[in-house]
Input
Amino acid sequence: MKYQGTEFKNRKIDFQKLKKYGFQNKSGSFIFETELKKGEFKLILNFSKDSELDYKIIETATGEEYEPAYIKNAEGSFVGEIRQETEEIISDISNKCTYFNPFVSEYTYKVIDYIKEKYSDEPEYLWDKFPDNAIFRNKNNQKWYAAILTVKKCKVGLQEDGTCEVIDLKGKPENIIKFIDNKNFLPGYHMNKKYWYTIRLDGSVKLEDIFRHIDSSYNIIE
Output
């Protein structure tokens, strides 16, 4: 049964930690078995190489899968207890064997690493409803100089489907007007467009150019 819960949303599996937890590597899949209901049932968890989780709940006496545990509208305290115990185990694995990984683009992580290394500033995740949005602020004056956001492409004026990761940066109005092309350099998303602009983080703009713009934004708010 494919796990449909939210425990692993915006999180990345650390397979070395899975091994320490007790998972066995079998032909590239990581498998873990444990008891439910004091041995009346057995829970088998299977992480694929792609970090997808499958699970089985087996009735120990019969060796057959306990189907009611998979049915959302199946009622009763007994099946509810089995589901709860299963979720508690999966939650424990998520807490101990994963790390926060809100973004998709490798470009985005290279940008974050650059800011950490040059300015010693960590991303701040301020909004629980938007875990894939983060800001950076100057430690001395607490002013924002960058925001990394996951947005719908249409929201930033792109005639494309899907989402993309972008960085909002601060600039001088006379400079912003010159390099806004409404393709790779866009008016500031959710910011005052006179002083902020947005850059795509999908490879459309060279990293060296993005780093230069980050430095400029940082210097403006000092």
